[in-house]
Amino acid sequence: MKADGENRDEAQMIASILGGNTQEFHALIQPYERSVYSMALSMLQNEADAEDAAQEAFLKAFRNLEKFRGEAKFSTWLISIMLNEARSRLRQKKTAKTDSLDELNEGGHVSPALLRDWREIPSEVLERQEVGHMLQVAITDLPPIYREVFVLRDIEDFSVNQSAEALGITVAAAKVRLHRARIMLQKRLAPELRRVMPKRRWLSWF
Amino acid sequence: MVLECKHVWDHISGYLDGTLDAEVLEKVQKHLEHCEICSAILDSTRNILILTADERVFELPIGFSERLHARLETEMRDSESKSS
Ligand SMILES: [Zn+2]
Fold first, then answer.
1. Which region among A26-35, A104-113, A133-142 has the lowest average model confidence (pLDDT)?
2. What is the ipTM of this complex?
3. Cβ–Cβ contact A199 with B under 8 A
4. Per the CB < 8 Å rule, is B17 touching A160?
């Protein structure tokens, strides 16, 4: 993400789009499609919902482009639109039982549905696929406040400061949440990874 | 002052991000040199972050871009017809 968007004059692209050259919006958002979608999927945990929410976020960014003031990076602004979109969708679904369970689940334990999913993995799948799936399950299982910062910093390669800005929290809070997210993942994943990739060192946290 | 293991754990994340103060960093490094447990924890945490960055954990669905840009195209046409 850093590499893709950084060497362009985005302020100039945005000015041009606002000046009527709307087609340039396609190029403007292109480097950020994956980040926005990753954030949507990690929050909504369903591919169809995530795609729809991501599209909606890009549409909102287009409609509200004149409100972008350029104090933040465009990518940071986009992510904060995506976060708001995902959060409002989650609020609408709140009545569902699984969501309230998820909110209470501050310790980041395995939810029954995901555990079942995990057991269905055939043993002969490629190690790489298995590891990827393990990571995805563990990350989506993190409580939302930890998941958000982890996705931005460790998957989408935002800086800690940029992650904090996108999330609307202080840098100190972002660091604390990131630390907790990493510890939770280490505790959960080290024993699982030791089984799949025994050659590396996977000592559990405690 | 020598750091205990559990205090070192508090700094694992900062250590990996390179955001520790020089003083803390030195203590953590000293501890890691002789503590097998903490260096194994550090390694496994770092490995998890490397795998996470590697694995493209949340991959874009096939056709995502095409569908997105088609929807944007419709929106742009609508906004143009409104403003003209
Ligand atoms: Zn130690």
1. A104-113
2. 0.85
3. no
4. yes
